[in-house]
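User: My instructor asked us to take a sequence, write out its structure as tokens, and then describe one feature of it. I'm not sure where to start. Here is the sequence I was given:
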Amino acid sequence: MKRFWKVFDKIVDAMAAIAWIMLLFICAASCYTIGMRFFFTRTTIWIMQTTEYALLWMVFLSTTWLLREKGHITTDLVYEHLSEKTKWLLDVITFTLSGLACAVLFYYSAAYTYDSIIGGVTDVRAVTVPKWTVYIIIPIGSLFLIIQFFRMAGSRLSELRAGR
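Assistant: Let's start with the prediction itself. The structure tokens for your sequence are:
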């Protein structure tokens, strides 16, 4: 099982690195299009569409890494006053419910992506692209979130059991 988590963590790190590269691309593309508009009164039509897609991809590529690193903002006003056992139990419940919510997201996004593939649905704007190429990241990212949430729930549950 340790090998699985090692590979999983490497994939999550690679996904976060790709998201970081996408952020650099968005910054560079935005500067490029602003410069083109300012100096040459021309703009590049594909940049807006591409940056929209990149923003979606960035979220689903990086969220699992952020979750694993505990980088999300939390409000712990009440949480800090709970006993350790209650904190552990609350964490297990929260992580499990979050994993289940991601499972629902996974199911519906996978179904939509599958329907887009089967139906040959395209996004017709500045550049025509198959919709599944845009939305495939949602079930992929959701799957990684499911695994990470249940990993965290299992870890906290093990701590709770060991504390008894």
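For the description part of your assignment, you could build on this observation: The first helix runs from residue 2 to 40. Try explaining in your own words what that tells you about the chain.
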